[in-house]
Amino acid sequence: MRFRLLLIVVIVVCILACVCSGSFSQTDIYLRTERTGHGKIPIVVQSIEPASRDMEGTARYVSGVLRKDLEYSGIFDPLAFVESSDTLEGGMTAAAIFEGRLVSSGQRFTLETKLLDFASREVIFSKRYSFTDRARRTVAHHICDEIVYFLVGEQGIATTRLLFCRKGGEHKDLYLIDYDGHGERKITKGELTISPVWLDFMRFCYTSYRRGNPDCYLVDLERGKRSILSHRKGLNMASSYYPEGDEIAITLSVKGNSEIYSIDSSGEIIRRLTRNRAIDCSATWSPNGRELAFVSDRTGAPQVYIMDRFGGNVRRLSGTGSYNTSPTWSPDGDMITYVSRESTRYALKLISPDGLTEETIFDDYLSYEDPSWAPNGRHIATTVRYGGKPWIVIVDIDTGEKRRLVQGEAPAWSPLKRTGTGE
Predict the structure, then answer these.
(1) Which of 17, 141, 233, 295 is the most exposed place for a label (fewest CB within 10 A)?
(2) In this structure, are 148 and 220 located in the same domain?
(3) Average pLDDT over every residue of 116-132
């Protein structure tokens, strides 16, 4: 969702009682804060108060991660009170104040948190988190997402992750990393991997040449299991998943030519979507599952097209440029991003599904490839080359801010976790 709104407050009072594993008790007041332009919402983040000196490190760590999460959201401007006071420098005001107190009980910590309205000091939410030392970063992410939800009314992305590929010698392996660049984990070893695609928060697929043929593999992180999803002769490259229908858009060349098919998560073909002498690939589902955007060179060069879920009503979407590729549908369905070659660089474009509205996200000297939307519809992960080396860069399409995440390419942003908080 694109943010164009500031500081009109609507308060809805709602009391909830939730019990999650390693979670909290709560009393909540939902505060919706709207913003205009690129202005960020000021929020006071008080350092978490430790109950004893031996917990100072943990309290300081969680406070630091939370402040960074709020900055990375692109929505908030974390502030601090003037020392030994409850006022901000220059008489500034803020939307809310975060407070926390950390205590320990055996091998676990308990963090009692409050979010207060700045003007009235009324409690917006009050929650208690129980966690182990290894989950302290996760707890900070959850707190950030709660603040986003209660102040803006949207789901936060601090607990999401990204897949990406990184070349090392003759290999290009698959990696997993937290949205803020921490917790890097190598998924494959000594393979040539491409096209990672998330199915849900714990499952994803990717294409690997580990057996000589570009086969598609399915990984279940929860079960620690990897299996072959599609190993038909020729190319097997998944590109997008529609969860409600359990349909994976995949490019297969089993008939000799690259065509787009729909398969389920067991690898069975549901239907063939394209029939053309040209190369058809890189399909991306619309959020409602009614249409797909895809790439075809049926006019002599790669262009972006749209078709319905059965392969009919094909129309060209990209209107300019001789080389347009890598379409990705935004989570709210109102925009599609794609890559367009302009002279010696690749520009990142945003276009409405009807083709009536189009813009270039950045008009600079850098090249942007492999775009992948965050589930909030505000951020895009993309590959940008600096000094010839590919980096995963997080782009805020509302503020224009960019953040280098890690060296690599072909990012795939995970969906939100839908059940529980976990650790």
Answers:
(1) 17
(2) no
(3) 95
